[in-house]
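User: Just a sanity check before I run the rest of the batch. Below are the structure tokens for the first item. I only need the designed sequence back.
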């Protein structure tokens, strides 16, 4: 009898904790980890590059929303935050991360957008700032799509499919000649499988305990960094070929 009561109390406690997590853990810290595909790569022609965030054209999305999940029909949304807990728009995160990747390749890089404000720029504004700074190249980014989703009520024992999509455009502008501009598009979608279910069937604990980790991993370590690394390599190849 006591065992049944203890199990019931434990289940109730876990359920309450999960709901609390779902209500309060909406902010997800994103830390960009450059893809290992960039390791060992080096450039022959040094150059200075400025990266500019031109904004986010996703439809019906908050600028900082990176994920959404449902477990037992309880919805939960996830919003990007930086290491200090400040609001982080998806478009700024993409531009800043691409800036880091280009720096990892050996370029002298900086952001055109003000870090304190993090407002997106128009193309004309970005070009003017880059010219004033005297850099060799301007790289712009614009986010078209991007989100991580999972549905906890799918009947798959023990594991949870978590799928992420990211789509953004970038442009390379040679500020010395303003010719030979190149455009690139990163479009990547991937489903990752996580061991995340406490019970054989779907449980209410999925979203509350694991959701934030799944989202931050996809955006900081796996899917999104892979798309960014590919774009950085394409941009670098174009610069080195000139």
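Assistant: Here's the designed sequence for the first item:
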């Amino acid at each position: 009898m006591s065992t049944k009561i203890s199990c019931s109390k434990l289940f109730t406690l876990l359920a309450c904790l999960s709901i609390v997590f779902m209500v309060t853990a909406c902010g997800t810290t994103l830390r960009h980890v450059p893809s290992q595909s960039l390791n060992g790569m080096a450039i022959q022609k040094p150059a200075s590059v400025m990266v500019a965030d031109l904004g986010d054209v996703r439809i019906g999305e908050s600028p900082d929303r990176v994920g959404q999940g449902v477990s037992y029909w309880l919805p939960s949304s996830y919003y990007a935050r930086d290491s200090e807990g400040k609001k982080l728009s998806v478009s700024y995160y993409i531009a800043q991360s691409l800036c880091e990747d280009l720096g990892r390749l050996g370029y002298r890089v900086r952001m055109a957008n003000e870090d304190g404000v993090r407002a997106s720029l128009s193309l004309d504004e970005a070009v003017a700032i880059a010219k004033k700074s005297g850099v060799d190249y301007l790289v712009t980014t614009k986010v078209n799509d991007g989100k991580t989703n999972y549905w906890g009520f799918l009947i798959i024992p023990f594991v949870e499919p978590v799928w992420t999509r990211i789509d953004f455009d970038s442009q390379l502008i040679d500020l010395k000649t303003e010719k030979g501009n190149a455009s690139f598009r990163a479009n990547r979608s991937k489903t990752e499988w996580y061991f995340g279910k406490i019970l054989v069937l779907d449980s209410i604990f999925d979203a509350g305990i694991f959701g934030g980790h799944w989202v931050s991993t996809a955006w900081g370590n796996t899917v999104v960094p892979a798309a960014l690394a590919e774009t950085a390599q394409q941009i670098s190849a174009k610069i080195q070929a000139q």
